Amino acid sequence: MNNLLKHIKGDRTIWAIVAVLAIFSFMPVYSASTNLVYVVGSGSTLGYLIKHMVLLFMGFVIIYVVHKIPYRYFSGGSVLMLPVVLLLLIYTLSQGTTIGGANASRWIRIPFVGVGFQTSTLAGLILMVYVARYLAKNKEKKIVFKESLWQLWLPVGLILMLILPANFSTTAIIFTMILMLAIIGGYPFKFIGYILGIGILMLSLFVLTAKAFPDAMPNRVATWQSRIENFSSDSAEEGYQVTKAKIAIATGGLTGKGPGKSVQKNFLPQSSSDFIYAIIVEEYGLMGALSVIFVYFLLLFRIMMAAKKATTIFASLLVIGVGLPIIFQAMINMAVASNLFPVTGQTLPLISSGGTSIWMTCFALGMILSVSASKDDTEETILDDNPLDILHEAID
């Protein structure tokens, strides 16, 4: 055990949190998979559990490998990966398939493995690193808006435009996270307003074009519209899912029905992924629900601590850029299950089943641990102009 711990660097609390979430996920995924077995009629509960365990094991391998890479290499790597991501997104739009009944061409199959891969998740991670790189390199410079349009917002805009047709929620989350990172990184507020206006204008043009030429992008805008219109309705599929999720939450009580004893898992179409939090509340009650929230907030606290202790501006922005989306995604997933937010299709990080979500979350955590590990290996002091201090000044 001691030999193993010697090879594990970085924030041990983050390692422990990831392990706790991964181990806890086994029972909810195993329980919720009965929906796919007995209702949909595919596979076996043990098979889904083993698959989930394999995906998590591969995720831990990703964390270990990535956390051994010096974090400074991620800066140049993001530039090299941008063309690759663009090609993958173009390929996905033209050749993508649907996985698990998802009505969108947002997946591609990994050859010889048979696992679906959601390219937009990788694109979002690469974009956050690229934005962190730009902000760090221009921290001591006066940012010219026209120059930043070409250097920063053109790559961001191209990638988001390729994600948008098949996945509006992911596009909105990435765009929101990028704007938040830009504010923390010292990008001028006035320019943020310009970019926000341009983003709204481009989205409006896309919606109008999709309305005018419905055959070009079938179902997408109509799907967004129906999800918003039926936010509190029981008449649509989304309303049906949310109703069953609310029943699961309402019947959970203080301590829940017990592991594996959920009833609503047999009715929720995405009980092991998008709505797994509702199953957790039904089986583990309010105590279980609050415990999950507490663990994510503890992870957020450790991410902020890692960012604050980082020894370079890029390291701080990197941790914030790849760490905050994990927590934001978790909050959205739980808000959807609680009917506080329209259905988005976002999974619960490290708990929901699904390879892409697990792997990309682990890749992001690996980068955070790489930064944390670099702090362990150096005696450098924290920079005075840490981006967290910039955020405090902006709030004041």
Q: How do the SSEs run, as a string of H and E?
A: HHHHHEEHHHHHHHHHH
The main sheet comes to: 2 strands, antiparallel
Label the structural class: mainly alpha
Mean pLDDT: 82
Low-confidence stretches: 98-104, 377-385, 390-396
- Cα-based radius of gyration, to the nearest Å: 21 Å
**What portion of the residues fall into strands of 2 or more residues?**
under 5%
The total count of helices amounts to 15
Question: Would you give an account of this structure?
Answer:
With 396 residues, the chain is mostly helical. Helices cover 69% and strands 2% of the residues. It has 15 helices and two strands. It has helices at 2-7, 12-32, 34-40, 45-67, 73-95, 119-137, 145-163, 168-184, 189-212, 220-229, 237-250, 276-309, 313-337, 355-376, 387-395, and strands spanning 107-109, 116-118. The chain has a two-stranded antiparallel sheet with strand order 1-2. β1 and β2 form a beta hairpin. α4 packs parallel to α14 (355-376) and α8 runs antiparallel to α13 (313-337). The longest helix is centred in the C-terminal third of the chain and has 34 residues, at 276-309. The radius of gyration is 21 Å and the shape is globular. The termini are far apart. The model is unreliable at 98-104, 377-385 and 390-396 (pLDDT under 50).
